[in-house]
Design a protein that fits this description.
With about 110 residues, the protein is mostly helical. It has helices at about 15-20, 35-40, 55-70, 70-105; strands at about 10, 25-30, 50.
Length: about 110
């Protein structure tokens, strides 16, 4: 369901990640130190609202901005997620190569 949203506003990390990985722009309500990093990695650092700074006006403004920039943000997300997937794939290939060297005596 999250992947079908035009824009997602969430506080829970995994719900936000579900939206981000589906190229759905996110306005993140941050109560954890992890949220700003993940949003920055996806090019959405400006769409994070720390819990202590949440106001209806700020949320409305960011949601309106995300809606008006939806296409560009979705494109940015698709590129960022693609880069992350490629890096994860490379990391698994490195691990597999290291594991296979350990099994054959390092040859």
């Amino acid at each position: 369901m999250i992947g079908r949203c035009a824009v997602f506003c969430g506080a829970r990390m995994h719900a936000n990640i579900a939206a981000l990985s589906s190229s759905v722009p996110v306005v993140a309500l941050s109560y954890s130190h992890k949220t700003p990093g993940i949003m920055a990695a996806c090019g959405l650092a400006d769409f994070v609202v720390p819990a202590a700074e949440i106001t209806a006006e700020r949320l409305e403004a960011l949601i309106d901005q995300a809606v008006s920039e939806r296409d560009a943000l979705s494109t940015r997300l698709a590129e960022a997620v693609g880069d992350m997937r490629r890096q994860a794939r490379r990391n698994f290939e490195i691990l597999a190569r290291l594991a296979s060297h350990g099994q054959d005596g390092g040859a």
